[in-house]
Amino acid sequence: MQRQTTITENSMIWCGAGISIAEILTGTYLAPLGFTKGIAVIIIGHIIGCFLLFLAGIIGGQQRLSSMNAAKISFGQNGSKFFALLNVLQLIGWTGIMIYDGALAANRVWHLNQALWVLLIGALIIGWLLVGVRHLYYLNLVTISTLLILSGLLCAAIFTHHSASSSTGTLSWAQGMELVIAMPLSWLPLISDYTSVAQRPVPTSGISAIFYGLTSCWMAFIGLGAALLTHDINIATIILRAGLGIAGLFIIIFSTITTTFMDAYSAGVSSKTIFSKWSGTMAAIGATILGTISALICPMDNFSNFLYLIGSVFIGSVFAPMIAIQITDYFILEVDYRQQNCQWTNLILWLIGFIIYRILLNYSFLLGSTVTTIIVIIAMTWGTCRVMKLVKAK
């Protein structure tokens, strides 16, 4: 029997997910909202996103199923493969952009060669994968503890050595909410890959969501404060102005590794839903190699555009209605369609959710288009089930 992970191990894994350049960059893009609104968007977006993350973790954790295998509960054996394929594609995209941004920032701190930084980060991620999620305790203990200390120094340097300034640019509340909520929701199709191998799935789901939420909020606060106080959204420049030097380089490289490792690992786990005979570790290494190659040859300079793209194409359109249906089926309706090949009613509801999200993008909502879509699809899934039961009763 394979070793199961503890709550402490999972809390460190999800701290590593939250301590990320991506989270800091997201915070910098909120600067046009100003400090007060920016903080409010960060907190509200993370509370909503992490609550959904918690629910998603319970589903796979209680059933001992990876995230994409848990999708079989709502969409059937083959229906889940469609979502697994899309998940693998988005995770390779995340792997590429994270390696690229990490290498770009590292090269600005220490001018070595961006391609060499790409290869170094890619190689270290592969090293993490070879160690394996069940055996990362001591490696993560040292890495995450150091990152927390150095992030604290970065935060102190930013907020004590610069004076406040007014915000510039334009960004609506709804756009800010979409940017923020894209971060926790991007982990929805991954969290069960970790809770399913945990000793205590439900508490682990809660602790994972809390630790990720707290560290992610902290990183976003740093990014927001840096953009408002230093007039800069370049993470390398912010680190250099903070006087961290080599310590800042450590933050860049190892925060990239601890986050991107999870993307690559879950790409491997999701690939096994499609090809059951594949080795998850080898598939994860393959995803890392593809991400590394894309970071070497593809221009990825505008992270905000990537966030909007990934949020629009995958998180809002694909995974938001998917998780809405799963939450309704598992917690409210208590149904299980794993014995079916495809659950066509839910697939049609998912397609409706996809269309609804694309339409809602043209309008401005207080909680953003993604959360609004989730609420609508939960109501539609519950309503459809009730109607079908009434029809059958007659």
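Second entry:
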Amino acid sequence: MNKEVLKVTRSEEKYFISIPDKYFLMKNLKNILQEDSFGDHGFYKVRTLYFDNPTNKDYLDKVNNTPSRKGIRLRTYFPKSNFAKIEVKMKNPEIDNKISLKISQEDAKEIINLNYDVLKNYSNKKALEIYNILTEENYKPVIVIAYNRKAFDSREYGLRITIDNNLEYNNHNFDIFDPNLTLTPLCSFSENILEIKTEKILPLNIQTILDSIEKIDKASSKYKRSRFFLNSSLF
């Protein structure tokens, strides 16, 4: 299997947008940016398993807006996919860093079952770094979050723009590959979350399109929102 590790440094902005503005963006961005190769013309279903330690440190850091914080997640784009990505996102006041490791479905299922030793099979320092975080801080799965995504990206511009909706969760069954996974709605289907992730200054034509819509700057981490919604079960 191709064993791949990526380290990405970028800025990230999140907004709520209306349904008309969602379709405006999809219509105009497809003429400039590439639609994501995943799924059908950039449409696909994301399932993400989030991890936290016994004190819920990552969640509490997000709630308290701690300047330097991190998050760990295991993500697949289709339940039948033969691979997943395990990622560590690290945020500081100036920039976001993300370490992303592509692993097999078999290894991903081992990680879901707390067998983190499979990460030692990947001969790179970042896999070991993820392993050390998971084991030394006693991380365990806490919640699955799923949503529909429309994605555009451009390597030339160092840019990725996504629009997510239909946010759902399961905090009991952590098998992101389960085709019969039961998911409970977390918000209205009409809610749309725009995320703009860039490594460079936005080109003027793309900035003009984004400035043409109303963006409500209240969107927060999906992990934070889901666990806040379920906070009675945290402690």
